[in-house]
């Protein structure tokens, strides 16, 4: 009886010793290496991405980038439109300038447009940044109504960061509540052919 008890105790000790030294592997589960997750690109709410993943923005236009085009600020400089205080509504008095911008774009199908929305110094930076964007989008909508493809028009807001008049009165504020138009033209690449002389 005592021998059976000792034998059982020895057997139990052996099992504990063996299992303590073993590494258990989960069978049937495959780990996915980092970077193998698909990138989801789409509009609207999607899955929450981990800190190691980056969301890929959706470009509004894929065949042009304002930064790599020639910027012409002179051609449309006289067509700047101005807005009432705290408003992004296009006034009838500014439509002549919008029509002039549309005419310029229609005359050159390769040209694109950058609309820069601006505000006066009053209000917070965040508010003015949003208001400047609404003003730029207002010009874009008016151009679309005149037959300009919206995909040819890019918008940016500078808020109150780029005043044309540094004054602190109504005359200065009126000048600063504006949309500026920058004509974007494809850069002309000059092809140079070198003749080689091999005697």
Beta fraction: 5-15%
Task: Tell me the CATH superfamily of one domain.
Answer: OmpA-like domain
Level of helix content?
25-40%
Query: Count of DSSP E strands?
Result: 5
- Rounded Rg: 33 Å
Instruction: Report the average pLDDT across residues.
Output: 75
Instruction: Sum up the overall morphology in one term.
Output: globular
What is the class of one domain in the CATH system? Alpha Beta
Distance between the termini: 110 Å
Reported CATH architecture of one domain: 2-Layer Sandwich
Could you describe the largest sheet, including whether it forms a barrel? 5 strands, mixed
State the low-pLDDT regions, or none.
15-63
Described by its quaternary structure, the protein is: single chain
What would you call the structural class? alpha+beta
Helical stretch tally: 4
Description:
- The structure is a single chain.
- With 199 residues, the protein is α+β, with helices and mostly antiparallel strands.
- The chain has a domain at 66-185: OmpA-like domain (60s Ribosomal Protein L30, Chain: A).
- The chain is built from 4 helices and 5 strands, in the order αββαβαβαβ.
- Strands 1, 2, 3, 4 and 5 form a 5-stranded mixed sheet that branches.
- The chain starts with a helix and ends in a 14-residue tail after the last strand.
Short description:
The protein has 199 residues and is of the alpha+beta class. Helix content is 31%, strand content 14%.
């Amino acid at each position: 009886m005592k021998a059976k008890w000792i034998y059982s105790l020895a057997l139990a000790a052996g099992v504990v010793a063996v299992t303590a030294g073993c590494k258990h592997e989960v069978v049937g589960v495959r780990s996915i290496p980092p970077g193998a997750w698909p990138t989801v690109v789409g509009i609207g709410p999607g899955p929450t991405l981990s800190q190691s993943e980056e969301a890929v923005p959706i470009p509004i236009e894929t065949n042009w980038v304002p930064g790599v085009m020639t910027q012409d600020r002179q051609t449309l400089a006289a067509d700047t439109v101005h807005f009432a205080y705290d408003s992004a509504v296009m006034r009838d008095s500014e439509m002549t300038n919008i029509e002039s911008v549309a005419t310029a774009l229609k005359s050159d199908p390769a040209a694109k447009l950058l609309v820069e929305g601006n505000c006066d110094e009053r209000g917070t930076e965040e508010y003015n940044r949003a208001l400047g964007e609404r003003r730029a989008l207002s010009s874009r909508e008016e151009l679309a109504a005149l037959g300009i493809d919206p995909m040819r028009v890019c918008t940016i807001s500078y808020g109150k960061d780029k005043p044309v008049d540094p004054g602190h009165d109504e005359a200065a504020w009126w000048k600063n509540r504006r949309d500026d138009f920058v004509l974007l033209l494809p850069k002309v690449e000059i092809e140079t052919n070198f003749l080689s002389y091999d005697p």
